Amino acid sequence: MQVDVDLEARTEVPRWMAYGTPVFTVLAALSVSAVALAALDVDPIAAYEIMFVQTLTTEFGLTETIAKGVPLIFTGLAVYLPLKAQLWNIGAEGQLFIGAVAGTWIGLNVSLPIFALLPLMFVGAGVAGALWVAIPAWLRAKWGINEIITTLLFTFVAADLKNYVVRGPMQAPGANFPQTAQLPAAGQLPVIPGIGFPSGIVIAVVFVALTYLLVNHTRLGYEITFIGANDRAAEQAGMSTYRIYLFVLMVGGAFAGFAGISEISGVQTRLRAFFAPGYGFTAIPIALLGRNGAFRVLLAALFFAVIFVGGSSLQTLLSVPAAIVDIIQALIILFLITAEFFKRYRVSLSLERDPGAEPRGKRPEGEI
Amino acid sequence: MPGAGFFAGLANATVNASTVLILAGLGELISERAGVLNLGVEGMMLVGALTGFITTVITGNYWLGLGVAILAGGAMSLIHAFLCISLNSDQAVSGIMLTLLGTGLTTFFGNSYSGNSVSGFPERTLPIVGDLLVEIPILGPALFQSTVTDYAALLLVPVVWLFLYRTNIGLELISVGEDPETADTMGVDVFKMRYLAVIIGGALAGAAGAHLSLAFNQIWSASMTAGRGWIAVALVIFARWRPERILLGAYLFGLFNALQLYSQALDFSLGAGTPLAGVLNPVIDFVMNPTIMSTYPYLATLLVLVITVIRAENRELAQPSALVQSYSRETD
Amino acid sequence: MSEDAFVRLADITKTFPGVVANDEISMSIRKGEIHGLLGENGAGKSTLMKILYGLYSSDGGDVWIDGERAAIESPQDAIDAGIGMVHQHFKLIPRLSVAKNVVLGMREPASAFRADGDDDGFVSSLTTNRLVQGLAARFTLGLDVPEARIQSLADDYGFDIDVTAPVWQLDVGERQRVEILKALYRDVDLLILDEPTAVLTPTEAERLFETLRKLSDQGLSIIIITHKLKEVKSITDRVTVLRDGSRIDTVETADVSRADLARMMVGRDVLFQIDKDEVTAGEPVLKALDLRTDDDRGIEALSGVDLTVHAGEIVGIAGVSGNGQIELAESLVGIRPVTDGTIRIDGGDLTGAPPRAFIEHGVSFVPEDRHKHGCAESLSVMHNAILKGYTDEAFGDGLRLDYDASADYAETLVENFDVRGVSDVAKMQAGELSGGNLQKLILAREMDRDPKLLVANQPTRGVDVGAIEYIREGLIEQRDQGTGILLLSENLDEIFDLSDRILVMYEGEFVYEVTPEAADRRRIGLEMNGGEAGGAEPQVAVDGGRSES
């Protein structure tokens, strides 16, 4: 038992690490990806210059980043909120599909002026996403069935359902392609006059702020946080894990639904069979990076948006496969969970051992 | 009604589609029986498929290709093993990372091979009695006119069964997935066994990938696994963590897959005169729609999962008790 | 039984932060004896045995086996040295068969590869080849020979066990026999049993003792960890008593009475006296009638308990752990459903109500395990300070939770209850507090709400001496302000010092009630162990009053 070590570790290091980890992670991931780039005879410096500097300094790059950022912010929140209660919503991608289908259907079949139609599409997409995750949420809350597996399985079902509707019931009349008709103008998110940014960003930022308020300034947020930290103590204090688990997953599903319709309404303008953006999976590193607050989710989402946009520029300009984006994402997760270990490791060192609660099955030398 | 030729074709397609699932499913099963969930099957399969393919293109030797694929799958799984077993990382997150990494790496480095074909494992009959076995109606050609990897996958089912239930290593592997603390006090090396299981899982996923690119398709294209890795994960749950049920499940899932190809030929619509035809026919069309049919493996898995959990209270649970639980002596 | 020491522990010392768990303890175990290791919870019994079994390393001292110094650094070393241990929480894998559980880790090869078979040339050379042996040990598994051996061991000791049955089908007693078989199969010379009767019914316990006697007759040495005097008297040859980490004495069991043992175990009459004013108890704040509830395994843990706690009194529940105290505490605060009976808090019927209703009716709770149930270690002191009060209007109206007010409140608690080591209540994690300070924080949170009823389960366990005193004074103060307090403690000193009334709990019922002034410690110690005194203690009368009036 190392009493001296843990005293140092507990006060200083975690705080430093909390800020240092994301930076370290991103730099490490970019360094390793540079090796992959060099293997294809691409100058990594030039590539990163295109990826970051050009993306962030050109109007096109910025607009694209914002456009990509919107669905990423939503899916990021969709994973972030359940994670606050220690639940993994791995299936944001599926909820996104269902939201896109529902929202697009409303946009194509309801005729209303833009100020009524767009909100209706978002509400429809949100409700659809929430309902889509309701079964996994209920199975978790009622029976304790692992939400990771069930939300994942639902994602694949959702992908097939989406493929089905664009080839069948929702296929554009007379079209050969597996896609819906184009949304009417009233169903498309306009750009912000003057600066030309997609207006979806405004909605996304509003929801980031609402999530922040929910988690950090409400009793419900307190319950979510406490259940995430120790569900048994929370239940003894009268909180209902059943209620909270349903709530966080279904609100997460609604966020993912927003992501789907914001992408269709703001960027794609129609739903295609090949629409599989992977935003739901990118949400996992986003939520991990932004674990400590909704506004960090926003920043992390925008960061990944830059990488997405930069990745496509690389493909256009240097013929580098856009898959470099997947590699960078994977490496960020890899370094992030490695760093998590070192944070936890220090924390576990600082745990005081209670002589009443004797640890079982441990060898003494292992305690060090 | 469709004739014998139709059923032979369906059987053949079923068996062909199932080999990948058997290989990857058995690998995932071994990993999970030791307590480590690996959601990186899709990524490891892709890496196996591409490395095996490139090796075969360069050397012309598909056996070497298979060997490299197995090594590459094992190497990928080593990352997962290190993160989950040594660093106690979240198994789900690490697995998804592995899939992203595998997808990214293979798309990135496989770009220049995209669409290339290769001459891989040929279909053979078994020696001595093979020519007779092929004569068995419907099932003969499906089962006994196959590639070596098809035969190997079939053979592997009893091998894995024997390994898990009839060897000491298997016993220790299962014990580590059930209760690592108890295993530790009984002198079992928890870390070694878990590493072993995860690496076997990765190697088999690599072999599954090589089967895809060297035997099943004999071509490389990005993301050619097309979600089979996820089906393999589902299959393990469907099989309730028993190797013999993997075979059954793989054939069932393979049949769903094959039916998609043959669904045009299957017309179950009711004749115009049949009562309720107007109501039932759209339902039948929906149920038999190829895209809808591809959701069946997932729905079947969900059903099995829910039934198992709800019924299994206080009884023998199907799931390894320590699945997704990290173990270390230092912390609780 | 030989007089020579077979296993000898010499000056074993083990410290945990702030606590000396074993203070230079020496003891020896003879060949073929049953040796009791007696002491209260926290006396250091389990720690000492875990050192002997290689689960802990000692900070000082040696283990000698058969006259040679033994380096035991892991359970495997202990097994190799001939030591086996039956843990209180069984180390069995329910899905596997009895035989597989027994042979796990032994790598028994298939019978064809056994070296001990008949020796006909080629086959025997193959089976003795080291490579073949190694492969067979890994890639075969022979259960037939082990099964036969386990069966014959089981038959020897009268265990009626199907060795091929999966362990999940066995009941608790059978599982314990499997644990013993595991040790016997490994040819141990010394068997340690950690509170083996804690999970057994009296009949099963009697069967276990018969087995242990048979084993000792065959020359096996046995150490049995217990805090039940009755067991010590009925089964052991000698007994070593530990108290507060030190060895008090080792005696021949036949030479001492249960009363002597109780005195040795519990120690001097009073540890430290707390000034306590006489307070006249007020209206009843808790009235529980015929309360019944099950434990986590679904076995009845409370068998019809009547309990009344008045405003301004401390009712102390004494008892050996595992006699229904946790279940009593949990059902009285609404977190364990009752199977029968009623609970009235301050006049209102709360039977079957959710935990929140109990909190709102003024019930506070200090759980036994503060880490698992009392706090969220990864959250701040502030988050933990408002756990019970976060719905109060003081912390914001409507949906809003006012963290500024919460932080102010947490600071007040920290200040008023002398919680030390907190720099910033909003940033410091609760898990970073020391055990005593964390417990003070929890107590502060529970008492600051001016509860009608406070249920405190083991409030000072694992807490340093300074904090113990502070916590006890805090409880008295709370009583003086009119709170009714139910104090559950395995520490008799604490019960005596604080209580206005003492109830003794045994096997899910109250068996004895007394005031501290009128109480006799030895009598209470005996009642905790089931009451009826053996022939060796004529001075202690047998009290027929097993039922609570």
From TrEMBL, chain A:
Coiled coil: none
One of the record's GO cellular component terms: plasma membrane
Signal peptide: none
Membrane topology listed for this record: Multi-pass membrane protein
Matches recorded under CDD domains: TM_PBP1_transp_TpRbsC_like (cd06580)
Stretches that traverse the bilayer: 16-40, 60-80, 87-108, 114-135, 147-166, 195-215, 242-261, 273-290, 297-314, 320-342
Keyword Transmembrane helix: yes
Location in the cell: Cell membrane
Keywords, comma-separated and alphabetical: Cell membrane, Membrane, Sugar transport, Transmembrane, Transmembrane helix, Transport
Molecular-function annotations in GO: transmembrane transporter activity
Name recorded for this polypeptide: Simple sugar transport system permease protein
Organism: Halobellus clavatus
Organismal lineage: Archaea, Methanobacteriati, Methanobacteriota, Stenosarchaea group, Halobacteria
Automatic annotation (TrEMBL), chain B:
The keyword Membrane belongs to this UniProt entry's keyword annotation: yes
Protein name per UniProt: Nucleoside ABC transporter membrane protein
Main location: membrane
Keywords attached to this entry: Cell membrane, Membrane, Transmembrane, Transmembrane helix
Keyword Cell wall biogenesis/degradation on entry: no
Listed GO MF terms: transmembrane transporter activity
InterPro entries per record: ABC_transp_permease
Lineage: Archaea, Methanobacteriati, Methanobacteriota, Stenosarchaea group, Halobacteria
Species: Halobellus clavatus
Transmembrane portions of the chain: 6-24, 36-58, 64-85, 92-110, 142-164, 195-213, 219-239, 246-266, 286-310
Superkingdom to which the source organism belongs: Archaea
Subcellular compartments: Cell membrane
Gene Ontology CC terms, in alphabetical order: plasma membrane
Topology class, membrane: Multi-pass membrane protein
TrEMBL record, chain C:
CDD domains: ABC_Carb_Monos_I, ABC_Carb_Monos_II
Species this chain originates from: Halobellus clavatus
Segments for region (Disordered): 528-549
Entry protein name: Simple sugar transport system ATP-binding protein
SMART domains in alphabetical order: AAA
GO MF term list: ATP binding; ATP hydrolysis activity
ABC transporter domain: residues covered: 7-269, 286-532
Keyword terms: ATP-binding, Nucleotide-binding, Repeat, Sugar transport, Transport
